[in-house]
Design a protein that fits this description.
Structural class: mainly alpha
Radius of gyration: 21 Å
Helix content: 55-70%
Distance between the termini: 44 Å
Bound molecules: fe (ii) ion
Shape: globular
Amino acid sequence: MDLEREFERVVAADHRIEPRDWMPEGYRKTLVRQIAQHAHSEIIGMQPEGDWISRAPSLRRKAILLAKVQDEAGHGLYLYAAAETLGADRDDLTARLVEGRQKYSSIFNYPTLTFADVGVIGWLVDGAAICNQVPLCRTSYGPYARAMIRICKEESFHQRQGYELLMTMMRGTRAQRDMVRDAVDRWWWPALMMFGPPDEESANTERSLAWRIKRHTNDELRQRFVDMSVPQAEKLGVTLPDPKLAWNAERGHYDFGEIDWAEFWRVVKGDGPCNAQRVAHRREAHEDGAWVREAAAAYAAMRERAA
Ligand SMILES: [Fe+2]
Ligand SMILES: [Fe+2]
C-alpha cells in the first residue's frame, strides 16, 4: 500500500521511476511492450534504407546513409537495454520479433522504390518519429527517458539530412523532381498512420497518460506533425497528396482528410507490401550472427575465469 502510494507520488510530481523502485505490474508490462516495439522498429527500420546503401549516387550520400542506418542500430540497442532494466530478456524479445509475435512500426513494411524515398523517409518518417519521441524524453520511466534524449538528438540530424537531400533533388532535373513528388505521394499517408489509431480506438492511451508514460494522445501528436510538415512541403515545392489539407484559422491548425484505417490495420496485422520480407530478413540476420554471440559469450567466460 505504501509502495503504491509512493509510486503515485513520484509519477504525479513528474519525477522518474527507476529500476530499483517498486512499480505496478501493469506499468512494467506496458513499458516492456512499448519499449520492445520501439526497439524492434529501430532495427527493422534499418532495412528500407539499408537497401540503398550500395546504390547511393555519390560517396557523400553513401557515407551519410551508412551513418544514419548505423544510428538506427544504436537506437535499437539503447532501447533493448532499457527493456532489460525492467526484467525483460533480450533473446526473448528477439524471438518475439522474428516469430511475428511482437509488432514494430507499420511504416517499415512499405518498399523504398527510388533514392528519393531515402530523403522522404528522413523528412517525414524521422520527422514523425521526432514528434512522437520528444515528449518521451519526459516519460516517467528513467532509463527510457534518458535513452530518448540521446535518440532524439540523432533523429533530428536524420530529419535534416532527408530534407537536405530532397532540397538538392528539387534543384536538380525534372526527373529528380518527379521522383521526389512520387515518393512524397507514397509516404505521406503511411507517415500519418505512424501516430497509431485515432484516440477513441486507442485502447492503452488513457492508462499510459495516467502513468505519464505517454504525454499526449495520438491525435494531438498527429496534428502537431501535420502543422509542422505543411510549411516544410511548401518550402520544398511539393504538394502533399490530400485535397482536404487547409488552414483552419478558428482551430489554429491545419485540417486534413480521412486516413485509410483499413489499410493501417491490414499492414499492422501482417499484410503490408513487405511484412514477410522484413521479418524473414531479420530472422536470417539473427541466425547468421549466432557465431558472434557464441564468441562473445566464450570470451566473457574466459575473462571471468582469468579474474
Ligand atoms: Fe531511430
Ligand atoms: Fe532515425
